[in-house]
Structures are given as structure tokens and as C-alpha cells.
Amino acid sequence: MLTPEQADLLRATLAASDRHGFAPGEFAPRGDGAAALIEATLRYAKAVKVGRLDVANFRSDWALRPQPFDARGGLARAVADNRLQAWLDALPPPYPGYETLQVGLTTYRDIQAKGGWRPLAAGPDLKIGAVGPAVEALRARLAVEDPLTPAVTAMTPPPPGQTAGQPLFDETLAEAVKRAQRRMGLEPGGVVGTATRAALNVTVERRIDQIVANMERWRWLPSSLPAKRVQVNVAAGVLTLFKDDQPALSMRAVTGKPNGGETPLLSSEIHSIVLNPPWNVPTSIATKELLPKGRAYLAGAGFRILPGGGLQQRPGPNSALGLIKFDFNNPFAVYLHDTPSKGGFARYTRLVSHGCVRLERPLALARALMEGDPTWTPQQIDETIAGGVTTRARVADPVAVYLLYWTAYVTPDGQVNFRQDPYGWDALLIKRIAAQGGA
């Protein structure tokens, strides 16, 4: 039985559940009395701990699944032991990435309450030197999200006999455009072209949905992460190595292309590093992309037909896998690897692989993962690669790896950064939650 104080605490918690991305009143008790209050609390606890989407409604490549959670048993013990507040506090994901999104959610809901922002009209590119009402509309749009945007637009000198000039696109406004482009994962050139205009015209409601979808995916992670781990943000194309729970190494990555090449969400452990790896070509790639090019092309590019009929590319600097591959168990046959095509890392949009993750600086990651290993010293790794022989180096203490899909996250300056939901998974997640009736 709940004490009056415990009942009040539960009512207050449910009333404030919207700060976790839920709709106001979503967990209002469906009736009077303690039983209705407890049932509402159980729905809330499950939603905030492991998410609202039933696992049966996950895509197959959303392989990062929430852990089992006994809400009823946990609530009963918390009530009996009079530690209800501690139990409630421990339900949400205990990560800064989640907590900062809560702040971002409040910011964007406030923007929504004030009417959002006006979309920019179609027109020619806007850049330094542009003048006219479109420039003022751009400044006003940027100012909604960016407090560093100038409060007023620069003006041209007034024409003879007139008292006012026209709004002017100057260097200060160009810097505000660049900040917006960085936040949205676009090339920060300071010019408002088609892509930048489209990103700025995404509605505030859509941005709120993105924040809510990312908060939902945070709930799929375990309640604690290994202090040493590799994380890949598939949507942003970035790999980060954490040591002692702090970022120690970061690099750009190329991830899977939309519409068939998506990099899956998963967690595993890097158990070995293959130096000078051959590439066993997946049947679909061999059939659709390589075999039609003919035997002369295949021989020149280092491919051979295996006795069983498969296609393999010999190891070497021109191999599609480059000189290093990082292996971890998963049902999708994806891995991290080097690549001879370094130009792709310079692009801001890096979603062009068949699902695997290509790394900008794989040698740096290999050395960092093998740090302290008496056998696989940096010198030994270099010598083995130079020798050209395929060699599997076991990682003595396997390192956790997480492939994640963050399209909304907060940078140290407090700004919410967005990516354009390249796989459409934000929209799909929100849609599926709604289709099953929320929590």
C-alpha cells in the first residue's frame, strides 16, 4: 500500500513525464485510487527505462535491444523499502547525451510555443554581398536557434535622397550561416543554397520528433557502458574511442548508404584485428557490381574466383579493405576497416558504403586498442603490415563496440546538432510508437 507521501511523489513524477519526451498527460492514471496510480507508474517506468516501442516492432537491423526490465517487481521493492525516489531517479538513461537532449527538448518546445520559424522562400543562393528582404528573413530564421546571430541585419548605405538602405548579407551573417551548417552536418561554406535552405526549412515539430526519437534510442542502451569502448555514430559518420569513459580518439568514418546499404545498430566486442586482410566479396556485391565488369577488370584489380565460386580480392594497399580490418561478432557480417579511397572522408555527408564502416585513421585505432600488449607493439603492427602477409592479431581484452544512430545530439556549446535522418529511422520510430498506441 502506498503512503500518502509516496502517492504524491508518483503523481508529481507522472505530471512531469513530458520532460522525457512524452506527451503531456500520457501517463495520467486511468481512474481513481492507488491501483490506477500504480498501473500508470508501471507504464511510465517501462517507457522511460527501456522505451515505448515493443521489441516485436523493431526493424531487424535495429539489433541494439533494451535489456529486460521488471517494472512491477522494482516498484514493489522500492515502495516496501521506502526508496521510491531513488528508484524513480534511476529509471532514465544515466548519460549526459540523454540529459542534454532533455534540455534541448525544452528549448525546441519553447520555440514551438512561440510559433516556430518561418520557412525561407525559394530563390537564388544567398551569400556575402546579397541584399534585400530575403537577407533579413535569413537573419531572423537563424536567430531563432542561434543566440550568436546578430540582433539586427547590416544595411547598405541609403541611396541618394533616401533614408534607409537594404538588408545586407555581411561577414557576420555568413559566420552565423556556417554555424548553422555545422549544426546540421552540411559543408560550412557560408552560402545558403538548396541543401542549407531545405535544412533550415525543416519544421520545429520535425526537430522535436528527432529529439524524442534519439531519446528513445538512448533507452535501448544498457544502464552502464564499459569505460573502454568504441562508438560509431552512423548518421554523422564519426568514430570515437573512449578510455576511462572519456573520449581519447576520434575520426571520421564512412557508413552505409540509404535504401539497402544501411549500417545496422548493434553492440558487440572487437576480438581481433586482421592485418593485410583479403576481401571476401558478399555475393550481392559480386553479382551486381563486380562480375559484370569482366575477367580482365577482376584480374587487374586483384580479384580471384574461389573454388567454391566466391569472389575474393587479395590483400594489399589497393584492397577495398585497405590494410586493417577490425572484427566483431554480429549477424550482419559488418566490421570496421581501412580503405584505399581516402577522399570520401573530406565530405560532410559520408553515407556511401554497403554497410561496413570505413575509417579515416585505422592504424591509430589499432595501436590504441593494442596499447600495452607486449606482442602487438606499434613496431610489430607496422612490420607485419609491411610484410604483406595476412595476420590475425587477437585483442587480449576484447573492446566493446557500439554502432549507434544519433541524429540529434548536443555539443559542448549547448547547441542541439541535427542530421537529416538519412535512413528515415527517426520518422519510422515515431510512427511505430504512435501505431502501437504509445506506452
Key traits:
Muramoyl-pentapeptide Carboxypeptidase, domain 1; single chain; 3 domains; 3-stranded antiparallel sheet; 439 residues; alpha+beta; L,D-transpeptidase catalytic domain-like
Report on the structure:
The model has no long low-confidence stretch (mean pLDDT 94). 33% of the residues are buried. The protein has 439 residues and is α+β, with helices and mostly antiparallel strands. It has helices at residues 4-15, 34-50, 71-80, 84-89, 96-113, 133-145, 171-183, 194-200, 204-218, 283-290, 295-300, 362-369, 378-387, 425-435, and strands at 154-155, 167-168, 229-233, 238-243, 246-256, 266-275, 279-281, 303-305, 311-313, 324-328, 336-337, 351-353, 357-359, 391-404, 408-410, 416-418. It has 3 domains: 1-116 and 205-223 and 419-439, no CATH class; 133-202, Orthogonal Bundle (Muramoyl-pentapeptide Carboxypeptidase, domain 1); 225-278 and 315-406, L,D-transpeptidase catalytic domain-like (Beta Barrel). Strands 3-4-5-13-11-10-6-14 form an 8-stranded mixed beta barrel. The chain has a 3-stranded antiparallel sheet with strand order 7-9-8. Helix content is 35%, strand content 18%. The radius of gyration is 26 Å and the shape is globular. α5 runs antiparallel to α9 (204-218). The chain contains 14 helices and 16 strands. β10 (324-328) and β11 form a beta hairpin.
